[in-house]
Amino acid sequence: MKRILTMQDISCLGKCSITIALPVLSAMGVETVILPTAVLSTHTMFKNFTVKDLTDQLLPIAAHWKSENVHFDAIYTGYLGSAEEIEIAKRVFEMFRDKDTLLFVDPVMGDNGKLYPAFDTAYAALNAGLCKGTDIIVPNITEACLMTGTEYREVYDREYVVSLLGKLSGLGAGVSVLTGVSLSPGKTGVMGLDSANGSLFEYQNDRVDAAYHGTGDLFSSVCVGAVLRGRTLQEAVQIAADYTAHTIRVTLENPEKPWYGVDFERTLPDLIDALR
Ligand code: PXL
Predict the structure, then answer these.
(1) What is d(CA 14, CA 49) in angstroms, rounded to the nearest whole number?
(2) Which residue ranges form the domains of the chain, and what is each CATH number?
(3) Which residue among 22, 51, 213, 244 has the greatest number of ligand 1 atoms within 8 angstroms of its CB, and so is best to mutate?
């Protein structure tokens, strides 16, 4: 069984980050080790959330694993709370990167043209540094713009996306996958650029008209999980995009329509089937 380390926060209520990555990756048949950066009462879209920062625990935890000679097949970083935690993530990459360790970075920091409340533009620049030398990065358009100093556009064309991918590639990751890319009306999906050979790939499916928190984390978890289960990156991206769209549709059918997260618990059996 493959083993992944994921470094992100625990938001106790409001499904996202580790409360998505851990159950989803486990269901996908991947042993999931967690490095929790902070414990929050909820994700930061709620008002009055509490935070207990765990920065001072991260390197001691990692040093203990190192002394136990633990091997990770992948390291996946998501929402990190501070500049210091980005530096620690780089250190964790150095400590545990073996020849066969996949480094997968979701530089979570904003959406819809805006940074999340906890962050500023200096943080965005540091996230760009985290991407360097990694295997796969999966920013959304907002995050890609913030990391490359590009003007964010609500309305864009293929040329804009290709140029953004070119700039992302310049950050030094192997494959850049831009999420939330809509190339025609009623469609949404992803577009990627492999810096090894300059090849582009894309996958579009029907846009579901609803925005839920944590769907980026769901996409990333499924994508890295599918790669660890032997799928090519393009197959993994397709599985992740289809599963995320399916889960949003199922959530919309819930009469309570929770605004703080998607009902992935109801769709996990379908994900397991998709991997068979
Ligand atoms: O889903 C990304 C995410 C993760 N963790 C926390 C967040 C967010 C997005 O806002 O607030 C704490």
Answers:
(1) 11
(2) 3-275 (3.40.1190.20)
(3) 213
List, for residues 120-160, the tens digit of each pLDDT value. Answer: 999 999 999 999 999 999 999 999 999 999 999 999 999 99
Q: Where are the alpha helices (DSSP H) in the chain?
A: 17-27, 55-67, 83-96, 121-131, 141-148, 158-169, 215-228, 233-253, 264-274
Chain segment 72-127, per-residue pLDDT in tens? 999 999 999 899 999 999 999 999 999 999 999 999 999 999 999 889 999 999 99
Structure tokens at 258: 């929770």
Distance 9 CA to ligand 1 centre (A): 8
Q: What is the spatial distance between Cα 107 and Cα 211, in angstroms, rounded to a whole number?
A: 19
Encode 165-183: b = buried (16+ Cβ within 10 Å), e = exposed.
bebbbebebbbbbbbbbee
Pocket test for ligand 1, best of 13, 24, 44 (most atoms within 8 A of CB): 44
